[in-house]
TrEMBL record:
It comes from Micromonospora haikouensis. One of its GO terms (molecular function) is beta-glucosidase activity. Pfam families: Glyco_hydro_1. This is Beta-glucosidase. The active site is at E181 (proton donor), E382 (nucleophile). GO terms for biological process: cellulose catabolic process. Its EC number is 3.2.1.21.
Length: 477
C-alpha cells in the first residue's frame, strides 16, 4: 500500500483526459543569447555584465562562463533544422545587446546584426514564427560602468538599442518582448548580487526595477512608431505567493512578497501606478524620489500582449523572533525591506533547482493577471524544469521533465477553459544551456547538449512535445 504521508513521485504522469488547445495556439520553445550563443568575442561583440560576472572568481558554479555555451552562434542553421523537426510553430530567442551595439551606444554593428538577420530568415524559411526578446540580461559592460540600471540614462540607451534592432529586423519579426523578467535583473542583479552585475544594495535594486520599466516603456513607444503592425509585450516572472498558515502575520508576509515579486511590475506596466502598500513597505529603503513626473505614463504605454514566465510558487511566513530567516538563494537581500520573511518548503516534489512543482499555481497566476489586470492576450513565454539527465545508449529518457510539462500544459488548458485568453506556450528550454550562476550544472533542455562534442540529443520530452504540437493537445493518460 502506498504511504499517504509521502509526496507523490516526480515523473509520474497525472491521469487526465485528452485535451485540445484552441486553433492557432502558438507552440514554441525559448532560449536566451548569453545562455546558448557562445562566440563571445566574434564579429565585434564586446563584454556584457554576464561576461564580466562569470569571469569573476566565485560568481558561478565551477567558474563556468558563456564563452562557448552551446556554440549556437556557429551551429544556428542546424539548430533551426532541429526546431523544424520538432514542429515548433515559434521560437523565442533574445538578441545580445553587446553583439549588435558593442559598448551599448552608438552605431549598429553590422556583423552582429547579420547573425540575427540570418537566424530570422532561417526560421521564416522553415515556417517558424520568430519571437524576439530585446533584453535577456546582457547589459553592455560600459553601461554598467556608467551606473547600470540604477542610473536613469540606461533606460534611454535601451530605447536607442530597441530602435536599432527594429530598423534591422522590424520588417520580418512580428512578436517583440522588451524585457525578460525585470525582477531578476533588478533584485538578483542589484539586490542579492546572485546575478550580474552582482551588486547588493536594496535601494539600487528598486531604482533598477524602475529604470528597467522606463526603458521598456520608451522602447515600446519607439517600436510602435516605427512598426505599427508589431505585437509588443513584456515578459514578467510571476509567482503565486501563499501564506504558510492562516495567521494574520503570515498573510502579511505573503502580501509583502507578492508586492515585491509581482505587483512591483504588474501595477506600473498595466495600471500606471506603484502599489501604495509596496511603497510603504519600502519606506526604509527608498523614498521613490527616482520616479519623475510622466514616468508611469511612459511605463504603462499600451501593449498588445503580456508574457508570463512561470516556474513555481512561493510559500512564506512571518519572521519568528530570535530565529534566523531561512536562507533564500544566496542572500535574502533580493527582498529589500522584507529580508526577515521566511520562505517555507512544503515537502512536495521539487526539481533539480529545488523549486517546488506546482502546476495549479500556473492556473492561479494566469487567472489573476486576466482578472485583476488586463484583457490582453497572454502567453506563457517560459515554463520548464531542471532534472538530472543521463545518456543511456545514446538516449535521454527524461520522464520527470515530460511529466512537468504535461501537468503544466493541463493547467494552461484549464486556465483557457476558465476564460483566460492564453494564446501560446513556450517551453524552457529548447536545449540545455548556461543556467546563469549555476553554470552548466542544471539542465532545462528538451534537447540534451553534450558540451564537449556539442552533439544534440532530443530527449523523450522533446519527442513527446513534438507530438503535443502535432495534435495541438495532449493524449489521454
Ligand atoms: C528564468 C530565465 C531563464 C532561465 C530559467 C530557468 O528565470 O528567464 O533564462 O534561466 O529561468
Amino acid at each position: 500500500m502506498s504511504d499517504p504521508t509521502r509526496p507523490p513521485a516526480v515523473g509520474v504522469l497525472d491521469q487526465g483526459p485528452a485535451i485540445t488547445f484552441p486553433p492557432g495556439f502558438l507552440w514554441g520553445a525559448a532560449t536566451a543569447a548569453y545562455q546558448i550563443e557562445g562566440a563571445a568575442t566574434a564579429g565585434g561583440r564586446t563584454p556584457s555584465i554576464w561576461d564580466t560576472f562569470s569571469h569573476t572568481e566565485g560568481r558561478t558554479v565551477g567558474g563556468h562562463t558563456g564563452d562557448v555555451a552551446c556554440d549556437h552562434f556557429h551551429r544556428m542553421p542546424d539548430d533551426v533544422r532541429l526546431m523544424a523537426e520538432l514542429g515548433l510553430k515559434s521560437y523565442r530567442f533574445s538578441v545580445s545587446w553587446p553583439r549588435v551595439q558593442p559598448g551599448g551606444s552608438g552605431a549598429a554593428n553590422a556583423e552582429g546584426l547579420d547573425f540575427y538577420q540570418r537566424l530570422v530568415d532561417e526560421l521564416l524559411g522553415h515556417g517558424i514564427e520568430p519571437w524576439l526578446t530585446l533584453y535577456h540580461w546582457d547589459l553592455p559592460q560600459p553601461l554598467e560602468d556608467a551606473g547600470g540600471w540604477p542610473a536613469r540614462d540606461t533606460a534611454a540607451r535601451f530605447a536607442d538599442y530597441a530602435q536599432l534592432v527594429a530598423d534591422a529586423l522590424g520588417d520580418r519579426v512580428r512578436y517583440w518582448t522588451t524585457l525578460n523578467e525585470p525582477w531578476c535583473s533588478a533584485f538578483l542583479g542589484y539586490g542579492s548580487g546572485a546575478h550580474a552585475p552582482g551588486r547588493t544594495d536594496g535601494a539600487d535594486a528598486v531604482r533598477a526595477g524602475h529604470h528597467l520599466m522606463l526603458g521598456h516603456g520608451l522602447a515600446v513607444q519607439a517600436l510602435r512608431a516605427s512598426r505599427p503592425d508589431a505585437q509588443l509585450g513584456i515578459t514578467v516572472n510571476l509567482y503565486p505567493v501563499t501564506p504558510a498558515t492562516d495567521s494574520p502575520a503570515d498573510a502579511d508576509a505573503a502580501r509583502r512578497i507578492d508586492a515585491l515579486a509581482n505587483r512591483f511590475f504588474l501595477d506600473p506596466v498595466l495600471r500606471g501606478s506603484y502599489p501604495a502598500d509596496l511603497q510603504a513597505d519600502l519606506a526604509s529603503v527608498t523614498d521613490f524620489g527616482h520616479v519623475r513626473d510622466g514616468d508611469l505614463a511612459t511605463i504603462s504605454t499600451p501593449l498588445d500582449l503580456v508574457g508570463i514566465n512561470y516556474y513555481s510558487r512561493h510559500v512564506v511566513a512571518a519572521p519568528v523572533e530570535g530565529e534566523q530567516p531561512e536562507a533564500y538563494w544566496r542572500a535574502p537581500t533580493c527582498w529589500p525591506g522584507s529580508e526577515d520573511v521566511r520562505f517555507v518548503t512544503r515537502g512536495v516534489p521539487v526539481t533539480d533547482m529545488d523549486w517546488e512543482i506546482d502546476a495549479p499555481g500556473l492556473v492561479e497566476t494566469l487567472e489573476r493577471v486576466h482578472r485583476d489586470y488586463t484583457d490582453l492576450p497572454l502567453y506563457v513565454t517560459e515554463n520548464g524544469s531542471a532534472f538530472v539527465d543521463t545518456v543511456v545508449d545514446g538516449q535521454v529518457d527524461d520522464t520527470d521533465r515530460l511529466a512537468y510539462f504535461d501537468s503544466h500544459l493541463r493547467a494552461a488548458h484549464a486556465a483557457i477553459g476558465a476564460g483566460v485568453p492564453l494564446r501560446g506556450y513556450f517551453a524552457w528550454s529548447l536545449m540545455d544551456n548556461f543556467e546563469w550562476a549555476w553554470g552548466y550544472t542544471k539542465r532545462f533542455g528538451m534537447v540534451y547538449v553534450d558540451y564537449d562534442s556539442q552533439v544534440r540529443i532530443p530527449k523523450s520530452s522533446a519527442r513527446w512535445y513534438a507530438e503535443v504540437i502535432r495534435r495541438n493537445g495532449l493524449a489521454a493518460q
